[in-house]
Design a protein that fits this description.
By secondary structure, the chain is of the alpha+beta class. It has 6 domains: 4-103, Rossmann fold (3-Layer(aba) Sandwich); 120-131 and 205-336, D-amino Acid Aminotransferase, Chain A, domain 1, CATH 3.30.470; 132-201, ATP-grasp fold, A domain (Dna Ligase, domain 1, 2-Layer Sandwich), CATH 3.30.1490.20; 345-445, D-amino Acid Aminotransferase, Chain A, domain 1; 459-549, no CATH class; 563-631, RNA polymerase II/Efflux pump adaptor protein, barrel-sandwich hybrid domain (OB fold (Dihydrolipoamide Acetyltransferase, E2P), Beta Barrel), CATH 2.40.50. It has 16 helices and 37 strands.
Length: 634
């Protein structure tokens, strides 16, 4: 067994690896950038090495710094986690060339599956069904457009080096192809330094099904069954579950056998995932499931596989990398119950899910379920990296049971003051289509704003806050009558976020507001009062923060109408207007690049551009006023 391991990653996956390594008696080394100097993974590891500035391109993505940190600490192996350098074949080879152990597949296997076009050709040869499309070398607009016409619209443009939903565009009509291709290439170049694309037929009623595979150096390959990751937003996974609903034994056997063939075709070692797209218009059928790509690393959603199989995949990775065979044979693996994972992000659903970085002032996650996180209360969600706060993972006897457990977990957790997608996750899990497993990757898009949680606290949340405002938690002189009742109208709540709302408490602690009717919450409302006299109420996954106040409470100041504010830290990559220009409602003003994604800022109403401070190439901080639209006078 490896004795000392360096984790070339950060956040929750680094913490996850450290936990298993500790259980195996393996010493751990963390690496960190300037932004992560006090991060949880640094605090958890036995040792930590600083590797550079905050941008990943100057720290976590610099292989030479990672290998230098290994030599500095005497570690003998590198675990790359996921993302960053995990699927970089050149880096994997440099690790091996340095005489170190690479906890992952062979560099040749990574290369074989690294480019989607080459991987699809290889899979055809291995007898694995692939989606109809074009993977040719001719990347001219004319050839790609002609091939799209042959395939038939709608078509999907995909970056050959893509992943995580980046560099993907669905095109519904020929007239939209050129613009979509340009945007896709630009994003792919920024994210993967490779702007080549392939085309695929857009699948009707698509389900995203993936199979966990595992190989070792002794020629063994097994599968650990399938996961369903169909609930997506803009090609990013939101909810993952295992097994896949509606999967019959024959179809499961066919898709898992195809996944094993795919892994054997590249002489695979370690943990990997074969991703398939299924045409579920007539349910899951083996003849309508096609290979998409292989992820040659541990997946973000690996905990759901662990929950239904009882396997620790990180332990298997370390054992196989140490030369041991896979601990279990195929006939020793089975499915037990149902598991669901929800990705909790610091992002604002009300602002198009833009990241919401900052310090976590208060946080309580339901300790009764599995929580995978890389932050604690007081930590900072950095604008430099993925804004994940935690993965919430539950296990139940069946699918309905697992859904209810997850809803309860979301209603018994809160994070503040950062905006999060917690309420959105609750709404996704509670819609009838999800409960009935009527899934496809477009479900969230079709539901639209119906999945956004209420911004204003309703009677359920207010009543729950009132119940927590009791005498044994509040002992201010003059607040209580001699008879032990709260003095009428003297103290109350201020709803801190996402909007300001005054709620006055009267005798007996009853809340009176515009919507104070008694409501019965479906899964129980969580109301927590902290020592600082803050009350956090979570209702349908949405957290409302109340503060106790006296009659001299302060008000809330907001930006003036027409102000174009940067929704998050980023870089201005395009500017479409100049000072004094006349614009119309919805007209694009500029494009901000943040988290490797492009965000268009548009005019809120007809008017004239004033106070323009943005410039192409300029870096901006969150809520910086980039321009102001002066309304047209009637």
């Amino acid at each position: 067994m490896i004795s000392k391991l360096l984790i070339a990653n950060r956040g929750e996956i680094a913490c996850r690896i450290i936990r298993t390594a500790r259980e195996l008696g393996v010493a751990t080394v963390a690496v960190y950038s300037d932004a992560d100097a006090k991060a949880l993974h640094v605090r958890m590891a036995d040792e930590a090495v600083h590797i550079g500035p905050s941008p990943a391109a100057e720290s976590y993505l610099v292989g030479e710094k990672i290998i230098a940190a290994v030599k500095q600490t005497g570690a003998e192996a590198i675990h790359p986690g996921y993302g960053f350098l995990s699927e970089n074949a050149a880096f994997a080879q440099s690790v091996i060339d340095a005489g170190l152990i690479w906890v992952g597949p062979k560099p040749a296997s990574i290369s074989a599956m690294g480019l989607k076009d080459a991987a699809k050709k290889l899979m055809r040869e291995a007898g694995v069904p692939v989606t109809p499309g074009y993977e040719g070398e001719d990347q001219s607009v004319e050839r790609l457009s002609a091939e799209a016409d042959k395939i038939g619209y709608p078509v999907l443009i995909k970056a050959v080096a893509g992943g995580g939903g980046k560099g993907m565009r669905k095109v519904d009509a020929p007239a939209d192809f050129a613009a979509a291709l340009e945007s896709c290439r630009r994003e792919a170049k920024a994210s993967f330094s490779n702007d080549e694309v392939l085309l695929e037929k857009w699948i009707t009623s698509p389900r995203h099904i993936e199979v966990q595979v595992f190989g070792d150096s002794h020629g063994n390959v097994v599968h650990l069954f399938e996961r369903d990751c169909s609930l997506q937003r803009r090609h990013q996974k939101v909810i993952e579950e295992a097994p896949a609903p509606g999967m019959d034994p024959d179809t499961r056997e066919a898709i898992c056998a195809a996944a094993v063939r795919a892994a054997k075709a590249v002489d695979y070692e370690g943990a990997g995932t074969i991703e398939f797209i299924a045409d579920a218009s007539e349910g899951l059928r083996a003849d309508r499931i096609f290979f998409m790509e292989m992820n040659t690393r541990l997946q973000v959603e690996h905990p759901v596989t662990e929950e239904i199989t009882g396997v620790d995949l990180v332990e298997w990775q370390l054992r196989v990398a140490s030369g041991e065979p896979i601990p279990l044979k195929q006939d020793e693996l089975s499915i037990n119950g149902w598991a669901i994972e929800a990705r909790l992000y610091a992002e604002d659903p009300a602002k198009g899910f833009l990241p919401s970085p900052g310090r976590i002032g208060d946080m309580e996650l339901d300790h009764r379920v599995r929580i995978e996180t890389g932050v604690e209360q007081g930590d900072i969600v950095s604008p430099h990296y993925d804004p994940m706060i935690a993965k919430i993972v539950v296990h139940g006897e069946g699918r309905a049971d697992a859904i209810d457990i997850m809803l309860n977990a979301l209603d018994n957790s809160y994070v503040a003051p950062l905006r999060t997608n917690q309420g959105f996750l609750f709404e996704c899990l509670d819609i009838p289509e999800f409960r009935d497993a009527e899934l496809d990757t477009g479900l969230i898009e079709r539901k639209g704003d119906a999945l956004l949680p209420a911004e204003r606290a309703g009677g359920t949340a207010i009543d729950a806050a009132a119940r927590r405002f009791r005498r044994d938690q509040l002992d201010w002189e003059g607040a209580w009558t001699p008879e032990g009742q709260l003095r009428s109208g003297l103290f109350g709540f201020r709803l801190n976020s996402p909007v300001r709302e005054e709620v006055t408490l009267y005798e007996g602690g009853q809340a009176v507001s515009g919507d104070s009717r008694n409501h019965e919450a479906s899964f129980g409302v969580c109301a927590t009062m902290t020592a600082e006299q803050k009350i956090f109420v979570t209702d349908r996954g949405h957290t409302y923060s109340f503060s106790v106040r006296g009659p001299d409470g302060t008000g809330h100041h907001s930006a003036a109408d027409g102000a174009i504010l940067a929704p998050m830290p980023g870089k201005v990559i395009a500017l479409d207007v100049a000072e004094g220009d006349t614009v119309t409602t919805g007209q694009r003003l500029m494009v901000l690049e943040a988290m490797k994604m492009e965000h268009a800022l548009t005019a809120p109403f007809d008017g004239t551009v004033r106070d323009l401070s943005a410039s192409v190439g300029g870096q901006v901080e969150v809520e910086t006023m980039l321009a102001r639209i002066e309304a047209v006078e009637e």
